[in-house]
Amino acid sequence: MPNDKDEVIVAVKGSRMDKFVSYNITQDLFTPEGSFQFGCFSKYDISAGDTCEIYVNRKVVMNGIVDTVKRELSRSGPRLSFEGRSVASILVDSCVTKFSTLPTKLSALAEKLVRGLPFIGKKDFEYYSKSKNAKANRKFVELSPGDTVFEVIKRAANSLGYLFWATPDGKFCFDKPLVRGKPLFSIHAKGDGSEMDYIEGSVTKTIEGVHSEVRVMGESQDDNDIKYVMATVKNDQMPFAKPLVVNWNENEGPAKKTAELQMAVEKASSIHLEYTVNGHSQNGNNWEINRFVDVDDEFNGAKDSYLIKSVTFSLDRQNGKRTRLELQPGGAL
Questions:
Q1: Crossing angle of helices 106-113 and 149-159, rounded to 10°
Q2: I need a surface site. Which of 34, 85, 213, 290 has the fewest CB within 10 A?
Q3: Is the dihedral of CA 253, 259, 262, 265 positive or negative?
Q4: How much is the pTM?
Q5: Which helix (H) or strand (E) holds 326?
Q6: Residue 28 forms beta bridges with which residues?
Q7: How many CB atoms lie within 10 A of CB 175?
Q8: CA-CA distances (angstroms) from residue 80 to 20, 21, 68, 323?
Q9: Measured between alpha carbons, how far is 333 from 218 in angstroms, rounded to an integer?
Q10: Residue 225 pLDDT more than 90?
């Protein structure tokens, strides 16, 4: 059940802020910098460039950097508003300035690119699914002017089938994208709309960019013998034939896994769910990205376990505390 007393606190400069007129806090699995906006009447001491921690129910949901502060005064009293993004914005905003040859090993690449950047060090990176020693093909770490640190790391990670994302508490993770998992949350609605545990909900399905099969073709050299290889993965959910052929080389891992990854990414993009619910938590757990939800939405035609892609906590005078969720199948990069 949602908690009407969900508590939001911003910790900055050794003090805490907990009285707000409005706020929006957005976390996104594929846009790791996220965003936050707060409005209040109190005269808190906060400045552009300050770091802060945002808590929901005493759990960190974002390590942030304040980008903008606005102060106003009227007959109704003082008004303060401030906004910013997570510490991951440093990676997104910072371009690579040294164009020497970069390491191809993911851990060495990440640690070299963040050297000299504020707030982020090699201790902030976590490696799962054998990603620490994984090596990308050199073409994926070649630099062009204007490339950001985030773009280079993400490109290298994705080329090996790893998702590069930021956790709510500020860690940067390399891991295989989750395809399945035990649902921590649930969303249900009856087909006639008589019972629903959300305020608004929609399900969008598409076959755009989705194929009936993925065929991976290329050459593999083994003991001076060049072998032609092919792997095929079919999508039984496509209503008609629409094949995709992908080039492959032996540095990209097993051909079968390359095909399976491409198919998982396509399936993840084929359905998009959006829900708005009361409060910021369910059964004592804050809504959180990269977690699974058991959806049984008869009215909108969705019944499966879906991954939370995006979470937005909000407060305003008209609607109170709400959470907006974006869901999709697992497996996307």
A1: 180
A2: 213
A3: negative
A4: 0.91
A5: strand 320-328
A6: 310
A7: 16
A8: 10, 10, 11, 23
A9: 23
A10: no
Element (H, E) at 267: helix 255-269
Name the 3-class secondary structure at 83.
strand
What letter represents residue 282's amino acid?
Q
pLDDT tens column, 94-122 = 999 988 899 999 999 999 999 999 999 99
In this structure, what token pair is assigned to residue 142? 């070649």
**CA–CA gap between residue 168 and residue 132 (Å, rounded):** 21
What's the per-residue H, E or C state across the chain? CCCCCCCEEEEECCEEECCCCEEEEEEECCCCCCEEEEEECCCCCCCCCCEEEEEECCEEEEEEEEEEEEEEEECCEEEEEEEEEECCHHHHHCECCCCCCCCCEHHHHHHHHCCCCCCCCHHHEEECCCCCCCECCHHHHCCCCCCEHHHHHHHHHHHCCCEEEECCCCCEEEECCCCCCCCCEEEEECCCCCCECCCEEEEEECCCCCCCEEEEEEEEEECCEEEEEEEEEECCCCCCCCEEEEEEEHHHCCHHHHHHHHHHHHHHHCEEEEEEEECCEECCEECCCCCEEEEEECCCCEEEEEEEEEEEEEEECCCEEEEEEEEECCCCC
Which range (156-165, 223-232, 237-246, 288-297) has the least confidence?
223-232
33 pLDDT above the threshold of 80: yes
User: Which run of H or of E encompasses 80?
Assistant: strand 77-86
- Encoded tokens for 60: 């960190």
Sign of CA dihedral 286, 292, 294, 298: positive
Residue-wise pLDDT for 133-152, tens only, equals: 999 989 899 999 999 999 99
Distance CA 255, CA 248 (A): 7
